[in-house]
Design goal:
The structure is a homodimer of 131-residue chains. With 131 residues, chain A is of the alpha+beta class. Chain A folds into two domains: 75 residues, Arc Repressor Mutant, subunit A, CATH 1.10.10.10; 54 residues, Dna Ligase, domain 1, CATH 3.30.1490. Helices cover 38% and strands 24% of the residues of chain A. In chain A, helix 1 crosses helix 3 and helix 2 packs across helix 3. The longest helix of chain A is centred in the middle third of the chain and has 14 residues. The relative contact order of chain A is 0.14. Chain A binds a DNA duplex (30 and 30 nucleotides) through helix 1 and helix 3.
Chain lengths: 131, 131
DNA sequence: CTAAAAACAGTAACAGTTCTCATTATTGTT
DNA sequence: AACAATAATGAGAACTGTTACTGTTTTTAG
């Protein structure tokens, strides 16, 4: 009777692509990866499913680089390094006590923070050499 | 002989608007503020000067909210709270030792980070009440 | 096998931003 | 004060990432 989510091969492929890379891809990048498998896939399908994944929390939008949203399928919030030269988005570890900051935000401002995003910007190792 | 930057009243007004607010405005918001002062200003001028300010470092793009870039004229890197409900971007203080993270990025990955961005997402005090 | 509707391809529409070009404002020089 | 030279601008076209629409295909339950 009510809207039941149906299974879809293309949706699976899209999620598979996002999960099997650590490059934090854009919609277009994902589209180009799925295309060889399903040559008739539409870019709209990628966007539509990305929206669904975002809603369900399976995928999260971590940054906008050069006007393009970049996605990540990793569950835990973590830190990123964005190279302003080659535009790559790279995972990095941060052993930091953010829990205290969440408490402070609530206590001092009354803000209820659900998650956070920490991103460093600069030049990655490769771009420092080549430029 | 070479390209000398000329003075411009409208550029001044744009920077003034960004400096005199703490709402981390979008290009359109800035445009609407400058319009009463210079009714013939063009949105293109705002974008053009924002690009110049970004280059010179006088203004920094701190986030993209609902597809719109948001700007900030504050020199020092600081932390923001973005309310996902009313889309407001609010400054918050974070007494955190990020200097160590910069060192670790260089040591462990070879990344030369120039600056960082820490943003918390959630519901601000007002939106918690009204929703 | 059939029928209801979710998912889709293809494409048009949309929004934020950038680009183009003719005009205006600024600046150094007479 | 008038004069180039050229930086800055307004208006609007063009571009780009994303979303919406429509008719068709695929999935799924009975």
């Amino acid at each position: 009777m009510n809207t039941a989510k149906k299974h879809s091969k293309k949706r699976d492929a899209i999620l598979q692509v996002i999960r099997s890379t650590d490059c934090h891809p854009s919609a277009e990048w994902i589209y180009n990866q799925v295309k060889p498998i399903y040559p008739d896939i539409s870019l709209g399908t990628v966007y539509r499913n990305l929206a669904l994944f975002e809603q369900s929390g399976e995928v999260v939008a971590i940054a906008t680089v050069d006007g393009q949203k970049r996605y990540d399928a990793t569950a835990a919030t973590h830190t990123h390094f964005i190279c302003e030269c080659c535009k790559s988005v790279i995972d990095v570890e941060t052993p930091q006590p953010f829990a205290e900051m969440y408490k402070a935000l609530k206590k001092e401002h009354g803000f209820k923070a659900d998650y956070h995003s920490l991103t460093f910007y600069g030049k990655c190792d490769k771009c420092q050499i080549s430029n």
